[in-house]
């Protein structure tokens, strides 16, 4: 049974506030983002990449064709400033729809990378998911939005969810994970 709808914006803001920091550990695909080290306890490793200094390309997705199939939505980040910046940890990603919100864990076994992006360099991360059963609210979440935040950045970015419904594992878990930052190109 789904929880009573609550204002999606309030849920997203509260969830993002709880996952504003990052860690290098993987997750199990449940709610939360795999980010459990408070920012005040982290070591400063240089200038963190900020969304405001990056060009962000959301998608195009590799949509799952049928229920039970896997799909993926890539997010590509390009440093447009002259100053190098660093991505470390995982992006804090939340998916929402119908008044519900789910925070994503990192992909099982994924190791957080530390990437430094010079001007013009790019990195990406992927939101992977399992497609749910269309029209079955007990087995699927009809998603509307993706909200994410980079490690050590307070700015959130919101995009329309581009694919079909996502499989529900339980009322508070969906079959979706976030991958590590990977370099793009040479």
TrEMBL record:
**Sorted UniProt keywords:** Signal
The chain positions of domain DUF4232 read 49-181
Which InterPro entries does the record associate with it? DUF4232
Region forming the signal peptide? 1-22
Superkingdom as given in the UniProt entry: Bacteria
Q: Please give the residue ranges the record annotates as the region Disordered.
A: 25-45
- Annotated protein name in UniProt: DUF4232 domain-containing protein
